[in-house]
TrEMBL record:
PROSITE patterns tied to this protein: AMP_BINDING (PS00455)
A molecular-function term among this protein's GO annotations: CoA-ligase activity
Family: Belongs to the ATP-dependent AMP-binding enzyme family.
Name the record gives this protein: 4-coumarate--CoA ligase-like 7
Residue ranges annotated for the AMP-dependent synthetase/ligase domain, each copy included: 35-428
Gene3D superfamilies: N-terminal domain of ligase-like (3.40.50.12780)
UniProt keyword Ligase, yes or no: yes
Record has Acetylation as a keyword: no
């Protein structure tokens, strides 16, 4: 029996074969960066209001890439294909060090900032990282990790680049460095050494080289390094652009951690690609969330369920003008209608009649780079609970047996499988896990039980396994 393969109702997009940096920053005319005016604001530090234009982001990223290759301490550790580990909360420096590392041809492994030294050590060793880019407040954890790995103090300090709270490099306020940062190579040092003429290219087959290593954990065993390629990410930015999103160029609020593939893809790559500025908040705090929406007139936010719970219950909601916030997309477990209605009722009670407050959700996993579905805003109120329709260029199956030989009938339950150019290369150094999750013809088995209705809307109804773990203020299951 032939498999029942579903495609997207949206037209496929061409698959680009280039570096992620090239895709995001390639100019389409004079005085533009990535197809938008170079003078447009790209990222803003929420606390200080310090902003970076698109031109500054490109130049600073290429400066960081040059500094990594030129500085005598970092030069031996940053050859093309080497891995660097990012261990920092959200900050204005994040896009610079991320894009700069990609421009230098490096692989980036992104670590949860709540990790202990032991957890960090596993990822550092498993990913074969050679250098740690860390926020100064995390230096103690990093130094302890190196000690546990058998490095001397001097050796450890040669493998750290520190990202300070000081924002003078971006035209922002000065902040005194912590004592722990003294003598370490800093972001500022690397930015001051020059500018890379052009990024490392990954044309043709090289686009299948790994660019990110995010770690996906299940219920047992150690986390697995998910090999995400340049092509995975360049395809995703085009896929999301083709999907209906709210109009306008008001800023987004970036509260979800950038160390998670959801944060990287939806708060760094996607907004930059479409020319929308992102206000970067270090971590989620209900009071600051509300204050930043009021201050920056934020229209759109990517969220997780704890944020909606806060909007439903936290007293800060009554102290700020949140009328600009019209759209929210949740990347967590299927949203319950009661919670959505509670938040909408609370926010709309303070607005003019006819105001917009739409809450939708998407779906995906680290292994799918991450997004595969999103429920369009124009139907989100009537289809609460659905993850939406399949993104273009992807294929899906709903499999009824463990061997993948029998597909569920339409409207029946089965395990959700995906195939397409956003599916990971595999699990780093773990062929057994890769073979368990990817078939020989590269169908990825999600472990989630789904139903697809006649209109092509999908619903997650159960799980065969625990999904990604992700820390906002505590561990939570995240599926996008």
């Amino acid at each position: 029996m032939s498999p029942r393969i579903y495609t997207s109702p949206f037209p496929d997009v061409p698959v680009d074969h280039c570096s992620l940096f090239t895709k995001l920053f390639r100019s389409r005319g004079p005085n533009d960066v990535g197809g938008h005016p170079e003078s447009w604001t790209a990222y803003v530090d929420a606390a200080s209001g310090t902003g970076l234009t698109r031109a500054q982001v490109k130049t600073l990223s290429l400066s960081f890439a040059y500094g990594l290759r030129d500085h005598p301490t970092t030069r031996p550790l940053t050859k093309r294909g080497d891995t660097v580990l990012l261990f920092s909360p959200n900050s204005l420096a994040w896009p610079i060090v991320l894009y700069g590392s990609v421009a230098a041809g490096l692989r980036c492994t992104l670590a949860n900032t709540a990790y202990t030294s032991h957890e960090l050590g596993f990822q550092y060793k498993d990913s074969a990282a050679k250098l740690v880019l860390t926020y100064e407040e995390n230096i103690g954890v990093v130094m302890k990790m190196f000690e546990e790995q058998g490095y001397s103090n001097a050796e450890a300090r040669q493998r750290i680049v520190v990202l300070r709270r000081d924002l003078r490099w971006a035209g922002g306020p000065a902040v005194s460095a912590l004592p722990e940062a003294a003598g370490l190579v800093s972001l500022e040092e690397l930015l001051a050494r020059g500018v890379l003429d052009r990024e490392e290219t990954f044309e043709g087959e090289a686009a299948h080289e790994t660019v990110y290593l995010c770690y996906s954990s299940g219920t047992t065993g150690n986390p697995k390094g998910v090999e995400t390629t340049h092509q995975n990410m360049t395809t995703l930015v085009d896929i999301i652009v083709k999907f209906p999103l709210p109009p306008g160029d008001a800023p987004m609020l970036g509260i979800l951690p950038f160390y998670h593939i959801y944060g990287v893809a939806n708060l760094l790559h996607h907004p930059f690609y479409i020319g929308v500025p992102v206000v970067i908040q270090t971590r989620f705090d209900p009071e600051q969330f509300c204050a930043n929406i009021q201050k920056y007139k934020v229209a759109f936010a990517c969220i997780v369920p704890p944020v909606l719970v806060a909007l439903a219950r936290h007293p800060a909601v009554d102290s700020y003008d949140l009328s600009s916030l019209q759209y929210m997309c949740s990347g967590a477990a299927p949203l319950g209608a009661d919670l959505v209605k509670m938040v909408q009722a609370r926010l709309l009670s303070k607005r003019k009649h006819g105001s917009t407050c739409l809450i939708t959700q998407g779906y995906g996993l680290t292994e799918t780079s991450p997004s595969t579905h999103m429920l369009a805003f124009d139907v989100c109120d009537e289809r609460v609970g659905s993850i939406g329709q399949l993104f273009p260029t992807l294929k899906a199956r709903i499999v009824a047996d463990d061997d993948g030989l029998v597909d569920a009938e339409e409207g029946e339950r089965g395990e959700l499988w995906f195939q397409g150019p956003t599916i990971m290369k595999g699990y780093l150094g773990n062929p057994t896990a890769t073979k368990h999750s990817l078939t020989s013809d590269r169908w990825f088995k999600t472990g989630d039980i789904a139903i697809r209705d006649k209109e092509g809307y999908y619903y997650i109804v159960d799980r065969k396994k625990e999904l990604i773990k992700y820390k906002v203020s505590k561990r939570a299951k995240v599926i996008a």
